[in-house]
Structure formats: C-alpha cells, structure tokens
Amino acid sequence: MRTTVCVSAAILLLLLAVEPLAYADEKAKDTAVACKEYESEHYRLRTNIDVATSEDYSRVIEAAWPLLETFFDGAPKLRKGEKLDVYFLATQEDWQAKLKEDGVGIPIGAGGYYWPGNKTVYLWKQPTLYNSRQLLLHECMHQFHFIAKCNNVGPQDTWYIEGIVENLSRHYWDGEKLSLGVIPFCSLANYPKLALELFERADYDLGAMITGERGSGRPEWWALVRYLLNADEGKYLPAWKKLCKKLDGGQSAKNVFSSTAGDPKKLQPKILEWLKTQQEPFVPVWNEWQGQGSNAVVGTSNVTSGCRARDDASEIAATLIVPEGAWKGGLLVGFEDSESYTVALLNSEGGFSINQRIDKKWNVLKRGNAPEPAEGKYRLKAVRTEGSVTISANDIELGSFELAGAKLGVCLENCTIRFTDIEWK
C-alpha cells in the first residue's frame, strides 16, 4: 500500500501529491524466489535475507499484534493453525518476481504492498534499517486493519487508510519492547516538520484533503489522524472511534467527517498550533540513526556519522553504552553543516581524540587518555560558553576549544553505539 521507498528531497516533493496506484506491465524474472520460513504465533514470515534480521522481524511483527488488537479493538479471526503470510525480500527484483509468481500486479514506485486477494504482505529491503522495519510494520498494519475491521475490503478514503499506519508505524524497538505511534527521536522522513510547513501555508485547505477534492500527501494524513487520536488529552477519541466505524463500514469521509469529528475549518488552526508541539527533537545528519525512546538513539556506520539537536544548543549530555569489540563514539560539537563540524571521540583502546572537519579535511585538535568507563558507560558532556566548548567524560575535562557552529549532538565512527539519557538545552 505504500507508494514511497526512501526519503530524499525529490521524493519528499512527491509526498505532496497523490496519484492512483499503477501497476507495471513488464515481466519480472521467472526464477522462483527461495525463502526461509519464520513462524510465530500469528505470522508466517518468509525471507531471503540474513537469519538474525529475519528473526528480529519475526519478533517485531508478533510484538505488534497485541498493540494493534488494542488499537483496532479487535483482531483477525484465524482458523486453527492459520497464520498471516508476510514476504520480506532482499531486492526489488526478488519482490517483483515473487509478486509475479503469486499472480499479483506489481505496484509502480512501491516498496511494499498488501494484496487483499491472498491476504499476503510483500515488501523488499529499504535503504535504512529503520525504514525497512517501519515499512514491514506499515504493511502488516494494513493487513491487520483490512482483515480485522473491513471484511478485507479497503475503506474509500486514502488519507484514513494510510494516515492510520503512517502514525502507528512510527515506532521504537530495542529488540524486545515495541512502542507504536511515537514521535520519533529523529527520522529521515520527518513528517512533523513537513506537516507543519503544509499547515502554515496560507492556501492550505484541510477540508479539501478530507473530501478528496485535491491532491494530498502522507505528512498531512499522519497529522490529521494523530491529532484526532491524541490532541487535548483524548478529547476527539470518542469521535474518532465513531468515524472509524463508519469509514471501515464503507462510508465516505466526504459524507460523514463533519457530522462525526467536527468542522475541518475549525480543526485546521487547532492542528496547526498542536503540530508545533509534535516536532522531532533531533536530526540525523547521516543515515542509520534510530530513536529508541524520547531521549535515546542508536547509530551505526562504517565512517564518521552524527545525529544533532534540531535547534541551537548551549549544552548537551549523553550516556554512551560501551559496545563489545572495537568502537569510537562521543559527541558532535560545533556543527555548522555536513562538511564543517567537530567530533569528540572516545575509543575502545582507552583514548580520545578531538577531530575537526573543515575544508574537506580532518584536523586533530587534541589526543589523550580517556577516563575509565563506569559500569560499562560514559557520561559525556559538552558546554558552550562565550564561543568555546568544554568537553568532559565522566566529569573529567577533555579540553576546551573555540568552535563555530551552535548545533550539538552525538556521533560515532565505524561501529554501532547506543546513547541514552540525552539532555540538551
């Protein structure tokens, strides 16, 4: 059901317009895709990717089941031994081949698809770890919603179908605990920012989006659904539940929205003000940063990578959880742009290095011995005062440096590291 694969400037522009789902006429390769099965209580996941990731995906969709059952106030009724089928393929070519093998049309420009005809989810690996997992949840949510509440027939309104899963699929997952419907700590898509920009436009018309009288996009669908679910301590939740019953039953929002949920003209300014409180706090400077809570993030990269606070900051503190094996990680300081910044990196050999990136070159400002970790952790801190930034680890000062750039964050190099208890101001 999703019509976007990854997020870039060009694709974000496409989010503002919606076209009917099209299907490719080209022939996919004839070779059947060999997959391994991973069964859980409710799902039969088939993949041709690595075992560890497949097992993680099997756990995450199973963890979603009780949360979705609560959200939708019901679940698919499965016969004894029946499980919902999901295919996660390594490449777009494999995905197309599997769709062809099963007699399913190939949606153009999609990364995943739920086909009601055989009640099966199909998707392929996305450019980042978070996007792949989010898309898996996204498509399984369509499957769950259609079967549990709509007699496996999609409701009429795209904003409703997709808005629900765009909201719910924004998640935190640490390998064991799953939280759905969160404001991500950081994301490449950054729907809250895009939605706010849309609602701030003088010509924005929420009512025309709801009735389908104009093209619209996922950020505003996400915003409307999330508002009705969460705003004003659940004020609109009773109306939302009534609306869901009508839309799941086949009625059109054009006919029932205003009488059920309220006048869109009155809702629009309220949503605009509310969106200002829903913004993601951090921005991934490079890919592969995943929020794990409102103040925690995990990053992975084979080069230097960082994730920064959205707004200017004078101070940041974060706990670095020391990983197994070789690692380098710490704080991103004095950030101006992706070619002008400084990193304070501790490492697995017991040292630290303050490295400045400028004019496409690295300059080492200082090297030294780092303090010992405390119970496998480092508490890192950077404070800006009068143009200089003072950096410390476990309350031991590593140095003070005159640095331009008012953005602060966390960083790593050639490893995977989790940061928790992040504070900034």
Task: Offer a few descriptive terms.
425 residues, Glutaredoxin, Jelly Rolls, 3 domains, 12-stranded antiparallel beta sheet, 5-stranded mixed beta sheet
Description of the structure:
Strands 10, 11, 12, 13, 14, 15, 16, 17, 18, 19, 20 and 21 form a twelve-stranded antiparallel β-sheet that branches. Helix 2 (51-72) packs across helix 4 and helix 9 (237-248) packs antiparallel against helix 10 (253-261). The protein folds into three domains: 9-153, Collagenase ColT, N-terminal domain (Glutaredoxin, 3-Layer(aba) Sandwich); 155-280; 282-424, Jelly Rolls (Sandwich). It starts with 8 loop residues before the first helix and ends with a strand. The protein is globular, with a radius of gyration of 23 Å. It is built from eleven helices and 21 strands. The protein is of the alpha+beta class.
Summed up, what is this model?
With 425 residues, this protein is of the alpha+beta class.
